Amino acid sequence: MDPLDLTHTQFVLLCALAWLSRESDRVTQVDIANQGNADRMMVSKVLRTLEEKKFITRHEHPTDTRAKTIKLTPDGEMVLQKAIICVETVDLDFFNKLGTDLTTFNSTMAALIEQNTKEI
Prior knowledge:
Elements: H1 8-21, H2 29-35, H3 40-52, E1 56-60, E2 68-72, H4 74-95, H5 102-119
Antiparallel strand pairs: 1-2
């Protein structure tokens, strides 16, 4: 069982919500879908699940009657912080195999991305 009770998709949407919440206290489901480049219906279902888990709240939007504002709860903030630490730890463990070659690896990957972006 997952100790954080969080799927990858739930994690991504919580990250999107946290990011967007830095700039606005009126983050909507559409904002989250756009930030995560995700299907709106899927986002709606996942947000309902996150609400059931008490990781977010949804309230009526003050100016748009069709929208709801989404906010992280204290439990949501706590689980997100734990999840971020887990993801970063796994990343460090995975890339630790490169040792001192990490800088070379990063610059090579950046060059590959730039080269292939130009070709598209």
